[in-house]
Each structure stands twice: as C-alpha cells, then as structure tokens.
Amino acid sequence: MQQYGGHSVEAITGVRLDEQALTEIPAGGFDACPYTAATELWLQDNGITTVGARAFARLAALKVLDLHANAITWMAATSLDGLTRLEMLYLHTNRLGAFDYGALAPMAALRSLYLSSQQGGGLS
To answer: Cβ contacts of residue 32 below 8 Å, gap of 6+?
Structure first.
C-alpha cells in the first residue's frame, strides 16, 4: 500500500485544491491522482476557465464536486463522465453560457445542483 504524507491512499477521502491558482482542468486531468477513494473534491476559488473530457473519471467515488467561484466558460460534454455516485455538484458563480444537462443522466444519486450566478449572460 502506497503512503502519501503518512496516510494510506485509501484513507484520503477529501481533496482540497481551492485557492491554488489553477486555470484549467485538461482532458483526463485527474487520471494521475492516487486518491481514487476520495468522495469530495474541492476546486473553488481558482481561475479555472475550462474543464476537459473525462476530467474526473478516475475519481468515480466522488459524491461532492465543488467548482464554484471560478471563471469556467466551457465544459466538455463528457467532462463529468464516470461520476455516477455524485450527490452534490457546485458550479455557481462561473461564466457558463451553456450546460449539457444530459451529462447528469447517469447520476442517479444527484440531489443538489448549483448553477446560479453565472456572469455574462443567461444559462441555457
């Protein structure tokens, strides 16, 4: 079992990357992340503008994904693929002009979706 910071990979259930000046999450952006048991990923208050295809697919255990207070203008239609256990998705306070609601279909557990306060226009 690999150890990261004195903790086993399986013991890490929450990952906080807020306020890290991240500007994008590329396609497969978290493919190298060892914390596959993580149930929470916090990415708020960065400068993220784009989210690529299958960006979080390796983190299939996620229940909470927080991307609020960024500058996201574009998300790939498949950016949320693999997140079938997601319960809460925070996308408010970004710059999204469009959102693919079909991406939520495999998320049977989703109970909260925050899309309010999109700067620069209405969300379709």
So the answer is: none
Nearest-angstrom CA–CA distance, 63 and 91: 14
- 3-state SS class at 40: strand
Distance CA(28)–CA(93), nearest Å, equals 24
Which helix (H) or strand (E) segment holds residue 101: the answer is none
Please list the pLDDT of the chain residue by residue as tens digits (124 residues).
455 566 677 888 999 999 999 999 999 999 999 999 999 999 999 999 999 999 999 999 999 999 999 999 999 999 999 999 999 999 999 999 989 999 999 999 999 999 999 997 677 7
DSSP three-state, residue 110 = coil
